[in-house]
Each structure stands twice: as C-alpha cells, then as structure tokens.
C-alpha cells in the first residue's frame, strides 16, 4: 500500500490565470495513490486548498513549497478542505496552530475530521453488508491507522453549497459534489469556469465512492454512486474550462472525461450483475466476486465500490434488495 517512489517529489509550479494568482504545491504522501496537490491562493487572505497528510516528508515538502514562493506556514489565513480524507486534511490542525488560520469544510464532512469520530456507524454498515466480524475488526484497525495520518481539527467553519469564498478582489463558489465522500466540494471561479475539483475529478484515477453513513441518518448507507453521478452532471452543466484535481494533472476536456467515467460505471455495473448468483449475494460476497485479488485496505475499497454499484442498480430497478434482521442480500429482478 505504501508508495515510497513518491517520497522525493516535492516541487511546486507557479500559475497565473486571469489575474487570480495560485500555485500548485505537489506534496508526497505515504499512500498508494501517490502525491497530493495542495493549492495556494496567493490573494488576500492567503489561502490553502487542502493541506496534505500528517507525515514528516509531507510537512517538509509543504514548507519548502511555500518557502520557494516567499511564504511560511505562519502566513496562512485560511484552509479550505475539499473532503475528509487524511491525505487532504491531515496537516490542517498543525497549520491552524502555527498560523491562527481558520479551517473550512463542508458540513457533511465536518464530523469526520473531529477528535470524537465514532466508528460504530461504520461497523453497523459493514455488518449489514455481510462482512465477517473479524474482518470488521481488521478494517476498524486499518481505519484508525489511516486516521493517524491526520491531526483531528479542533474547530472548523462549516460550508454549504453555493457559499462564496471571498478574497480582496476575487471569489470562489462552493459547489457541493457528494460522492467520493458525502461532503466533497469543488471550488469554482465563475468568471472563467476554472474548477478546483480535488478528488471528484481526477485525470487518470477513477475516484472511489467510499462507504459512508448517510449524513442525515447515520443508520443508513450513503448512496454514494448515485450522488457521484449527479455531481459529475452538475459539473458538466458548469461547462468548466479546466479542472485542477487533488492528484495528478489537469483535466482540460471535461466532456470527454465525463463520458468516459459514465461508460466505465455502466460497464462495471453490468459486469457485477452478471457475476451475481441466482440465489443472490451479500455486498461482501459480491465484492469477492468482482475484486477477487483485493487485499488489506483495498479490500475495504473493493467493498465500497461494490456496494455503491449494488445500491445504484437497486435504484435503477435492475436488482432487488432483501433485508433480514441486520443483513442484506441483493438479487436479480
């Protein structure tokens, strides 16, 4: 899971786009996904979009990237967190303590970055998905290890859809794009339709709809794939000129990217449906059929993607969901 090949990648690139000054600082991570893109908006107030994970190499790269641009962590006034994954928010609290900055995150992801995050709702969802108890224990241990790459954030300002992030002469609009997480956001500069898309749109990676409790009713599973497809369509309606992702390079032809993701989703769902036995299967059993070679943390991601496709197929009338006690079985219509 660790990807040490990226440990030395810590360059930054300077960008000027129609008078809004921003910079990409590429921060290494200890994760399989590789480096994360942190963006410095060099306007008043000085603002970071994301922060990188709690890791010495990551912190060193962020400090070095800021120094090359003539800034220090203590200069930062705001941190806009795109979503509640450790590779994106892990250093935010450290920056807050060093600079007095204010951290912002969408209200649906705010509980996930706090110190009192409870895994109980996840255990219930994993149980209903048919995951064996010992595997749930292993997944919880892995979750706690992953959370170790992020400082809990003591206080956040909560964002909502269509909020405006104001600068002295500029602004960015918050677009709520649930899917990858319930509270994932994009930031849009409406004057030229530039989008800071984080992990909602990535050039060479298909974002995983991660299994999460519903932010309104934590006893229910968040309908991640259905919400994600709606989010992609909403971004398409903005007619973006360029999308700057949380990993990798920019997306400059979103329409082609949108159709490719849509085709991939349909093909993956069709494959899953053909694999289901006539008697039906739990989400856990189905994930073993769809991703037989996934191990470790990737087993959880495999389950997340599988149950997202199963839920979407039920909503689309292609599968039926039978609930008995705390368990669920998906079967063909």
Q: Explain this structure to me?
A:
This protein has one domain: Ribonuclease Z/Hydroxyacylglutathione hydrolase-like (Metallo-beta-lactamase, Chain A). The protein has 333 residues and is α/β, with parallel strands linked by helices. It is built from 9 helices and 14 strands. The strands form 3 sheets. The chain has a 7-stranded mixed beta sheet, with helices on one face. A 5-stranded mixed beta sheet has the order 8-9-10-11-12, with no helix packed on it.
Count the strands? Answer: 14
What is the CATH first-level class name?
Alpha Beta
Q: Can you give the helix content as a percent range?
A: 25-40%
Cα distance spanning the termini: 38 Å
**N-to-C series of helices and strands:** EEEEHEHHEHHEEEEEHEHHHEE
What number of structural domains do the residues give?
Answer: 1
CATH architecture: 4-Layer Sandwich
Low-confidence stretches: 1-17
Biggest sheet overview: 7 strands, mixed
Given helix and strand content, the structural type is: alpha/beta
């Amino acid at each position: 899971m660790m990807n040490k090949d990226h440990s030395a990648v810590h360059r930054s690139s300077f960008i000027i786009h129609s008078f809004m000054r921003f910079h990409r600082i590429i921060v290494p991570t200890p994760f399989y996904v590789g480096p994360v893109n942190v963006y410095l908006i060099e306007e008043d107030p000085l603002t970071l979009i994301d922060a990188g994970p709690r890791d010495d190499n990551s912190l060193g790269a962020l400090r070095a990237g800021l120094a090359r641009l003539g800034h220090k962590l203590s200069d930062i006034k705001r941190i806009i967190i795109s979503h509640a994954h450790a590779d994106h928010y892990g250093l935010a609290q450290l920056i807050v303590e060093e600079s007095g900055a204010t951290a912002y995150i969408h209200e649906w992801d705010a509980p996930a970055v706090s110190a009192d995050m409870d895994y109980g709702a996840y255990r219930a969802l994993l149980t209903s998905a048919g995951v064996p108890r010992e595997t749930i224990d292993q997944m919880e241990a892995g979750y706690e290890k992953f959370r170790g790459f992020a400082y809990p954030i003591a206080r956040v300002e909560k964002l909502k859809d269509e909020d405006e992030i104001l600068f002295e002469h500029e602004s960015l609009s918050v677009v709520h794009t649930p899917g990858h997480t319930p509270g994932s956001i994009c930031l849009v500069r409406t004057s030229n339709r530039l989008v800071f898309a984080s992990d909602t749109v990535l050039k060479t990676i298909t974002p995983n709809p991660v299994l999460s409790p519903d932010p309104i009713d934590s006893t229910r599973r968040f309908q991640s794939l259905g919400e994600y497809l709606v989010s992609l369509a909403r971004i398409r309606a903005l007619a973006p000129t360029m999308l700057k992702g949380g990993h990798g390079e920019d997306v400059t032809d979103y329409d082609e990217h949108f159709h490719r993701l849509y085709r991939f989703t349909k093909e993956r769902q069709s494959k899953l449906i053909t694999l289901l036995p006539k008697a039906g299967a739990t989400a856990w059993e189905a994930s073993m059929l769809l991703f037989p070679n996934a191990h470790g943390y990737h087993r959880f991601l495999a389950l997340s993607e599988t149950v997202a496709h199963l839920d979407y197929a039920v909503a689309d009338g292609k599968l039926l969901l039978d609930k008995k006690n705390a368990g669920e079985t998906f079967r063909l219509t």
